[in-house]
Amino acid sequence: MLVDTFGRVATDLRVSLTDRCNLRCAYCMPPEGLDWLPKPDLLTADEIVRLVGIGVERLGIREVRYTGGEPLLRREIVEIVARTSATGAELSLTTNGIGLARLAEPLAEAGLRRVNVSLDTIDRDTFIRLAHRDRLDDVLAGLVAAARAGLTPVKVNAVLMRGINDHEAVPLLRHCLEHGYELRFIEQMPLDAQHGWRREGMITADEILALLKEGFDLAEDDPEARGSAPAERFLVDGGPAVVGVIGSVTRPFCGSCDRVRLTADGQIRNCLFATEESDLRAALRGGASDEELAERWIAAVRGKKAGHGIDDPSFLQPARPMSAIGG
Ligand code: SAM
Ligand code: SF4
């Protein structure tokens, strides 16, 4: 079992398949992009399958979410899903949706259960301004394909940025309600590669709710149903449709966090904001047995801190940006 000194058990593994991406979302990456990891540094498909197998069979991992960078840019994604679905873990994917129109069906057939698609606006000009690419139609087509392939409930993740897409909360929710997608707004976190995050500039969960209330009636859903899920859920116009708000910064949920992350270059991160990592790739390539890898992984999770500490004056943004950690 992966348990930390505060008694939290990690059962939800996030696996980053690449740090590359075909968008440049302003809250994540600079417009000019980043230097990608060299290919030999990336875990191979065989290495990923082996580590996921150890996580599930020896360490109690129950859910595996593939992420990135943009995971659909990883050529072997269907193969990796098919091989790891044999472990019995529940498999899901976080993607910007580009490529999903083509891949949703094969991924569902390979054993993928659900997708989260990131969509911050349904206005083309705003999309280009925010993501620096003209790909809104591809993302919308990807969402439709995901629903058609049964990767449901299709969840949509949105980040609002002041002066860019903060006028989009209501139209975005309307679009998601019309299509049966479950929308969740995520507070912007200090994980952008360009270190441009400022607390005063961030749109808080309170503000997100105030913006949504301009168009909808919201009532808090049963908090018991939340469990370890990060999103606070609100019934929209009396339900049954819901909208989620993930107040990662102002309403932290570190006390019930059950996640652990494996980066595309084989590092275990016990928290999004961890400043230390544990190198499974070196051990793996150095000939470690499954048992030794499991021991190393257990030790990495044991050292997890109580919380992310963003409000602490000594807070340091991790060197790795979100695109190289995986959301
Ligand atoms: N490229 C895929 C995507 O966009 O869904 C997967 C990787 S992306 C890093 C995973 C999630 O992190 C996305 O939902 C994205 O909106 C979110 N994200 C990225 N940077 C963020 C930030 N600074 N604050 C909050 N969420 C962020
Ligand atoms: Fe790419 Fe996802 Fe980051 Fe946007 S949030 S730049 S889609 S990795």
Which labels suit this protein?
327 residues, TIM Barrel, twelve-stranded mixed sheet, 10 helices, 30% helix, globular, binds S-adenosylmethionine
Question: How would you summarize this macromolecular structure in one to three sentences?
Answer:
The chain has 10 helices and 12 strands. It has helices at residues 45-59, 77-85, 100-110, 124-131, 136-148, 169-179, 205-213, 280-285, 290-302, 322-325; strands at residues 12-16, 63-67, 90-95, 114-118, 155-158, 182-186, 218-220, 232-236, 242-246, 259-262, 267-269, 278-279. The two termini are 23 Å apart.
The CATH class is identified as Alpha Beta
Principal-axis shape equals: globular
Largest sheet: 12 strands, mixed
Q: What number is the mean pLDDT?
A: 94
How many domains, as an integer? 1
Count of DSSP helices?
10
Determine the strand fraction and express it as a percent band.
Answer: 15-25%
CATH-scheme architecture = Alpha-Beta Barrel
Percent of residues in helices comes to: 25-40%
Unreliable residue runs: none
End-to-end Cα distance = 23 Å
From the alpha carbons, calculate the radius of gyration and give it in angstroms.
Answer: 19 Å
> What is the string of SSEs from the N terminus onward?
EHEHEHEHHEHEHEEEEEEHHH
- CATH fold-level name: TIM Barrel
Which ligands does the model contain, each kind named once?
S-adenosylmethionine, iron/sulfur cluster
Describe how the helices and strands are arranged:
Blueprint (H helix, E strand, L loop, with lengths): L11 E5 L28 H15 L3 E5 L9 H9 L4 E6 L4 H11 L3 E5 L5 H8 L4 H13 L6 E4 L10 H11 L2 E5 L18 H9 L4 E3 L11 E5 L5 E5 L12 E4 L4 E3 L8 E2 H6 L4 H13 L19 H4 L2
Parallel strand pairs: 1-2, 1-10, 2-3, 3-4, 4-5, 5-6, 6-9
Antiparallel strand pairs: 7-8, 8-9, 10-11, 11-12
Helix pairs in contact: 1-2, 1-9, 2-3, 3-5
The protein binds S-adenosylmethionine (SAM) and iron/sulfur cluster.
